[in-house]
Amino acid sequence: xxxxxxxxxxxxxxxxxxxxxxxxxxxxxxxxxxxxxxxxxxxxxxxxxxxxxxxxxxxxxxxxxxx
Length: 67
What we know:
Layout: H1 5-31, H2 34-60
Helix pairs in contact: 1-2
């Protein structure tokens, strides 16, 4: 049984929401600016969603390790 595209999108988005909050808090400690921290986190989150989605879809095509 494989994953649908919708499932992959939702899975990646929920993980990145969690990651976004953590990244923003850590960036705030370093950058000392909420605006810069949110901008940094937003760009990083977008990049990571695209990469995670591609990674998940790529693994879906690999037969190795499946029964």
